[in-house]
Amino acid sequence: MGWRRGEALEAAILDAAWEELSERGYANLTVDSDARRAGTSKPVLYRRWADKQKLVEAAVVRRNVIQLSPPADTGSLRGDLIATLNEASEKRGAFLVQLQPAARRLLRRDRDQLRRAARDDRRRAPLRA
């Protein structure tokens, strides 16, 4: 395989990240494993994405753009929505299940940060008479 650059290299990296994510899950995906699968080096990935989270976000966006389907046309809005939701569930259901633990951790972390910030704001707020 020759040297890849630009869009070809980015596509290879993001496709490799998607495959790693699908096979191993978020917790077991590493920048190193993605670089190896894509046939490049970690510094190449870090020049494009600051961390694993940003890399995964880009891979998810790419996959969703690639897999866009034409909207369903069943003749009714209700039918179109049901068909679209069923297709999304079939295509992305297993992947979303894999993301749930990571999403829970991120939400918990953000919730805890918001609680600390609110508590600190209450402590700094002047007392009113």
Any overview of this molecule?
Helix 1 packs across helix 2, helix 1 packs across helix 4 and helix 2 (31-38) packs across helix 3. By secondary structure, the chain is mostly helical. The radius of gyration is 20 Å and the shape is flat. It is built from five helices and no strands. Helix content is 75%, strand content 0%. The chain has two domains: 1-68, Tetracycline Repressor, domain 2, CATH 1.10.357; 72-129, no CATH class.
What labels describe this entry?
129 residues; mainly alpha; Tetracycline Repressor, domain 2
In short:
The chain is mainly alpha-helical and 129 residues long. The protein is built from five helices and no strands. The protein has helices spanning 6-24, 31-38, 42-48, 52-66, 77-124.
Describe the SSE topology.
Blueprint (H helix, E strand, L loop, with lengths): L5 H19 L6 H8 L3 H7 L3 H15 L10 H48 L5
Which radius of gyration do the C-alpha atoms yield? 20 Å
Tally of alpha and pi helices:
5
What is the CATH architecture descriptor of the largest domain? Orthogonal Bundle
Secondary-structure element order, N to C: HHHHH
